[in-house]
Write a structure and sequence with these properties.
Keywords: DNA-binding. GO terms for molecular function: DNA binding. InterPro entries: CheY-like_superfamily, Sig_transdc_resp-reg_C-effctor, Tscrpt_reg_LuxR_C, WalR-like, WH-like_DNA-bd_sf. By secondary structure, the protein is of the alpha/beta class. It folds into 2 domains: about 130 residues, Response regulator (Rossmann fold); about 55 residues, Arc Repressor Mutant, subunit A, CATH 1.10.10.
Length: about 200
């Protein structure tokens, strides 16, 4: 029997996902709102089923990398969020399931990645193409993420060890690349795509 750990921040949805998996013959060994810190006790699960929006932005790996403990990572991807898909890929996911998909697709995906295979939901094909074309560099994403938190140019510059002029140049580049009208619009576009 496939052993699964579910990582989903929203308690009600996490509980529903656990029930759905168990009704399909999958054994859920744990259910967490966030990635576990450090090494988990006992045997690692065969698969981590994770809400991809819980993954760290800008390609940062999760605190407990599933591949390091021999587990597969199956990411639940929201529609029209190519940045979230990109995060899941960067975190080492081998399975990608559309959150709007069917129970059967999810169960098939869990079983396939548990056997060492890959699974990509058909509905996510266009999302993969968009994710591959993300126009911003890692540095531009860093500047944009701090701007999204409301940091002024001087604080962004100090945090990233850049000059204020360089930060302004990065913001101008971001605005141009995403087709935004201003800084606020660029943040809205980037967050809507799941890049930050």
């Amino acid at each position: 029997m496939v052993r699964v750990t579910v990582v989903y921040e929203a308690h009600l949805l996490r509980a529903a996902l656990v029930e759905l998996l168990e009704s399909g013959g999958i054994r859920v060994v744990s259910s967490l709102p966030h990635w576990p810190q450090g090494v988990a006790e006992g045997a690692p699960p065969d698969v981590y089923v994770v809400d991809a929006e819980c993954l760290a932005p800008a390609g940062a790996a999760p605190a407990a990398c599933p591949a390091a403990e021999g587990s597969a990572l199956l990411a639940l991807i929201p529609a029209q969020r190519p940045g979230v898909l990109r995060r899941a890929h960067a975190a080492g996911a081998t399975g990608f399931v559309d959150k709007n998909g069917s129970k059967g697709r999810l169960l098939e995906a869990v079983r396939r990645v548990a056997e060492g295979g890959r699974f990509i939901d058909d509905t996510l094909a266009a999302e993969f193409l968009e994710a591959a074309e993300m126009p911003l560099t890692r540095r531009e994403l860093s500047v944009l993420a701090l701007a999204a938190k409301g940091e002024p140019v001087a604080e962004i510059a100090a945090t990233l060890y850049l000059s204020k002029g360089t930060v302004r140049n990065y913001m101008a580049s971001v605005i141009r690349k995403v087709g935004a009208r201003n800084r606020v619009d660029a943040i809205r576009i980037a967050q809507g795509a799941g890049w930050t």
